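Sequence in, structure out. Go.
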Amino acid sequence: MVQLGADDDFSGPVRIAFPDETVIDVQAERGRVANRVVVAETWGALLDGLRGHDMLELTMNGSSRRIETGEGQNFTCN
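Output:
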């Protein structure tokens, strides 16, 4: 699960773009993107992007925001 900011009740389309031009369009449910509702390939691309980049651009609710995530970490997610 990936939580999107402080609005824990937002449901709707979300776009996550990484510096390598990987763009992921997913549906948020109550402020979260969860692997149980995302296609496996998309979830994998999202995790790869989080592991491999220190920045992303998040677009939701008609607004885009650049987010510095810090150095990518090699983590696992079940």
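Check: The first strand starts at residue 2 and ends at 3. Helices lie at 40-52.
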